[in-house]
Amino acid sequence: MKPEKMGIVLVSNGVYHATTKEGGKASSMLDYSADYFVLKEDLDTRGLDESKVDSKVKVVTYGDVVDLIMNDYEKTAWL
Question: Looking at residues 35-64, what average pLDDT do you find?
Answer without folding.
Answer: 95
